Amino acid sequence: MKEGKLVGRSVARREDPRLLSGRGRFVDDIALPGMLHAQFVRSTVAHGEIASVDLSAVRHVPGVVAAFTADDLELGDITAQLGRPLSEYVPTAMPVLARDKVRYVGEPVAIVVARDAYAAEDGLEAAKVSYTTLPPVTSEEAALAPGAPLVHDEAARNTLVDVSLFATDGIDEIFASAPCVVHVESRTGRQNALPLETRGVVAHWDDREEQLVVQTCTQVPHQVRTVASRSLRLDERAVRVVVPDMGGGFGQKCVVGREEIAAAAAALRLRRPVKWIEDRKDALSASFLAREQHYQVRAAFGADGRILGLDADVVCDMGAYSCYPFTAGIEPLMASAEMPGVYKVPAYRVRGRAITTNKAPTAPYRGVSRPQYVMVVERLFERAARELGLDPVEIRRRNVITDFPYTGVNHITYDPGSYLESLNLCERLVQDEGWYEKQAAAAAEGRHLGIGYACFSERTGYGSTAFAQRKMQVVPGFDISEVRMDTSGAVTVTTGTMSHGQSHETTMAQIVADELGLDIAKVRLHQGDTDRITYGWGTFASRSITVGGSAVRLAAAKLGDKLRAIAAARWGIDADEVELTDGAARRRDDTSEVLTYEDIADIAYLRAHLLPKDIEPGLAATATFDVFTDGTFSNATHGVVVELHQGTGQVEILRYVCVEDCGVAINPQVVEGQCRGGIAQGIAGALFEQVTYDDMGEPSATSFMDYKVPTAHEIPDVLIHHLETPSAFTETGAKGAGEGGTIGAPAAVLNAVNDALRPTGVELDHTPVTPETVHRALNLEAAS
Amino acid sequence: MKEGKLVGRSVARREDPRLLSGRGRFVDDIALPGMLHAQFVRSTVAHGEIASVDLSAVRHVPGVVAAFTADDLELGDITAQLGRPLSEYVPTAMPVLARDKVRYVGEPVAIVVARDAYAAEDGLEAAKVSYTTLPPVTSEEAALAPGAPLVHDEAARNTLVDVSLFATDGIDEIFASAPCVVHVESRTGRQNALPLETRGVVAHWDDREEQLVVQTCTQVPHQVRTVASRSLRLDERAVRVVVPDMGGGFGQKCVVGREEIAAAAAALRLRRPVKWIEDRKDALSASFLAREQHYQVRAAFGADGRILGLDADVVCDMGAYSCYPFTAGIEPLMASAEMPGVYKVPAYRVRGRAITTNKAPTAPYRGVSRPQYVMVVERLFERAARELGLDPVEIRRRNVITDFPYTGVNHITYDPGSYLESLNLCERLVQDEGWYEKQAAAAAEGRHLGIGYACFSERTGYGSTAFAQRKMQVVPGFDISEVRMDTSGAVTVTTGTMSHGQSHETTMAQIVADELGLDIAKVRLHQGDTDRITYGWGTFASRSITVGGSAVRLAAAKLGDKLRAIAAARWGIDADEVELTDGAARRRDDTSEVLTYEDIADIAYLRAHLLPKDIEPGLAATATFDVFTDGTFSNATHGVVVELHQGTGQVEILRYVCVEDCGVAINPQVVEGQCRGGIAQGIAGALFEQVTYDDMGEPSATSFMDYKVPTAHEIPDVLIHHLETPSAFTETGAKGAGEGGTIGAPAAVLNAVNDALRPTGVELDHTPVTPETVHRALNLEAAS
Q1: Which residue numbers delimit the Aldehyde oxidase/xanthine dehydrogenase a/b hammerhead domain (chains A, B) (predicted)?
Q2: Interface touch B532/A532, C-beta < 8 Å
């Protein structure tokens, strides 16, 4: 990285003038002449065969223009595949609209298109769908029971993925002889990633370009294009996906949605624009959910507190369908591969399973299994510390990886990080604020203060190698960027990543402006248009700055080379005698000799006959970037202080300290925003949110009355401290900061709660930890 | 060029299904939410100082939203420059809206924006503009008269360009001693290129992209972007020009229009979409006009009919302003440089002038000076033939260039063409149909049949070298193309050229489909979007297939190399052992081994980890093409048979034969369409169309009642015969076919008319040749 003026600075967000003044354009802001509105007839049963679908009455509802079933639209299924031989994986098809069978309450069965959303809703009520109901499978126990009803007939059982990995030689002996073996069983609640903006799409057929234009709210525009074109049997170029401003995604929008394909199909059939905006009820119950996992893990420790082995069993309830492109394998494979985390674990065995149930399907929500397994591992360390009489920070200190690169028992090589440093600093920050003293004082008053930590790393910069390890059929590794300069010396950066709140318009521009020695006001990011770049994998897995940003920097560097070459040719000197600063090329030996970028662009475009014959006209450069190592690892330690309120069982977070290391922080303010938002979501998972179902598979949290989302009142201010261990594997030195907050929070919060509960002898390992649970634990103590 | 399956075949036009079924999208089809409509307050005087502009009443007209003068919008001028020192050129500024002075009737003075076009028209009537009128300059004589009023105060005279070129040593002696010297004085009428679709624009500000989107009807989208961004003082990237379907241009839309900039400025100011559609009255009188030139040329011949010298004086009446980017120099410089044409002219002298007058400005209409100078030169040959008692075809035969490459007295090198062959064949086709016998028989009946020919070439493939010769500040030489393939194996071709009727969607696809061995249905052209390619010069000067098509072929070839490289790597063989046919890569040594393009794309995009490390992911290639020679020359001979009707003076065209050679004809049907359309326009100039002004500079042909456009009734069927002398200077072998028809028709028609008039002794050298003129000539004969 060149010595930068902007990278590393909290440059003001370039998105904000637009967004804060209400000039953002979200999908629901789009209005096209003649636009129709769609709603979906959805299954009212969790499991059943569709006996009949009768839409004839729907078509007579005033304002309704059309109503289609899957067969009417001749739609191909969305089928996520694992590519390399993995005998343990059973692929299942997700029809765009349910055909023969429904598998969850809320599953789309038919689409109704009307002149407005009200008429479309009226149309839904006229639909007659009859089902032959089947017994619903609503829990892990039900799914795995012998003779359980099959969610997918094409699968012989309800387990779609079942892998057993690593199984270090002699692991059973290690456990048998270990001085200390601790065990944690943990269930994590089903959650909704809950972007502020629900899903939505506006699709229309463009006769001029012979393209179906799908303006949709997605993190993965090219992947939506690929799936839509295949489902609709169009050449891929005949689908253009354009993404407007987005109000969050968090993974719920990094998989391809059925409704966006169905709405596009209706627009194609009707040759009229069709809009669909998901309402909150559907968003809560019929969208992609996340997180429901069941861990049974034991850890062996030596008397000195050094970990000797991990033995784990993970079951992930993926719901009714395997999402595209990640498949039902994403969660168990992530947990299985990466569970040893920041610790030097000498022996490891894991079984990971994905099961299918009659609940809404899941998508990889921010952190993807890591919030769960980190929580379990951190609970194991806390428990071992108690058993061994060690300080919970000290036991971690004895086990975190300190010699890098480190190749783990899980065959993953970790690049340098500040595991120990972040742990020590986080503890010191908590100490320095006197929380240990406050805890003691509170205890003396009969109050319940607890202090908890979580130390973790997060693999980011997933390139081809890492995703190929995941055995995915599509390997979202590389990214492509184009950087072009126009005759005014202004630069447009095009990327295949897709900001849905991550401030890419700011951070990508910082990278380019520094690389080219340019005022950031002259740099503009263009994203979210599949016509503008051949392929991009979108934004997920903290990959945008690590992978996308690296491609951006490489492309900018290539453009810089061309600027230098043109200037050098004009001056008759070598290109390396030219430097780029302040929007101009300058001779190193005589900095009064200047060619501004406008001057160079004038030659490159408008007077190209002046170019040397070996330099082509134009000022554009494209670069691809991929990571052919195991990736790079961000890390952090979170420290939390909670107080449990005896009367209400409420968990109040008194202090939250985050020491994070995402390598080079392109824009610290943006990183802090990511941390704070992630921590809020992690706290939500630890203490508040849960999607529950009754025995018939009916979701019981379909509004914010029932799905408890923490507000600013429940979320504490967070002290953030940055460490910086630059990555050698990315062009920016950055490591990715999108998910870390979410990963650390549940573990730290749960450890703090358990620390506060220590006098009670109760330990809580499931999330969310509700006031009822805490109240019961505290009042057991009171009763004893 | 690879052995093609499609190039050279009259593949059905891919545009037609859309256009013929009414699904084309022209600029007036565009409707945006909240769109306003603009009209222009236009000057009512030809020459005057603006004393005051009062728009206050306009703003109170119901439905009017805003009204702006140039000062209100703070617009920069449009100034076309000649770049290299040319002391004889005087640059003049064209304000987007007139400021201090008006220079022609119809000049835009203010823009009125209203909720609909009716209200906008009402608004115009409320505008109060007062002028201090100045004496109008409405003719060459008035412009050049001593003490003439100045059209542009910044110019010391009304001559903007005055060049004297070549002046071969001893030319005066050649003329003094020549056995035969003939002279032609010719004036050509002011014409309107008259695209079926008038000009128009829809502009709106896009907050999301921070771009002013200008959807406009232009042949030169990137040039409109450059000018708009400079006039509006935006970064160039902040303007996006998008061109929808177009109903013709013919050069009128290859210059930047004031109204499109003004409408864009209003949209920027109001932050609302603004549409302007030119009405036919404005299109006829206030748009860009063309063609008004005055030639005085003499030619010296030997007794054997060989030409000894040409001595020419050309004055081009460019009207009130110098157009961007071509400047007022385009017409006199074209005529001066290229007048010797297809003939071996040993001595040459020319003076070329551009004058400015108080008439609507001109743009380079199809053929650009060539219809005029070819007519003059062909008249000179006819006249010399008469004087020397030679057959008019024979005298040409003795003079046309036959040894190629040939460097002329004008320092231009001509690449191989079929000058003699086309002449001989055209004569034979006329003979074979018995027209000479019919002429004799008609004469015996007292009827007036005439046979005329024109033999000419047209420089196309103007690259950097040729345009730099024209001393233009912006040198529209190169073109850039991108060819990309998606995961379905479908190909999108992006070009900087802009079809406004030339069938590029078909011909460019033919080139690519052949190059890649692909079904043409899998290839789609994308054009007319400045965001999609860094720069393109647009479509004019018959450059699209020659320059743009060459860039397209090179890009396709690069993509083909990548497809071969990926397949070769999979098979572990050399890339040259792989061939591309029928949508797949095949091993030459075992054609049963196949990787379809979908297979290769799957690797290149979705499983890029399988690529060799030296091959980047993605399937896209960009190529630039330029011509660093003097260009390439299409050629043709036109033969025409006319009958003059004694009673009405009507010129009836009985037969039209065109033998043309545009090198490789990518699609003969398309070439024929270009020929026929061009011939119709050439005939229109020869016999029908003229924009006239009264002494006060008031245009007198502002509707189709007065501006006489020939219809299918007046335009004959045309027999077209193709010769093919491939160009060595283009990647397609094509030479450009956009303008030839227009260039040859006036000369051939005028020669035929004069042949028919031979018994009268009258010779007509001015166009249009009106029925009145012919009637007078014939009845002189009858009276004599």
Answers
A1: 21-135
A2: yes
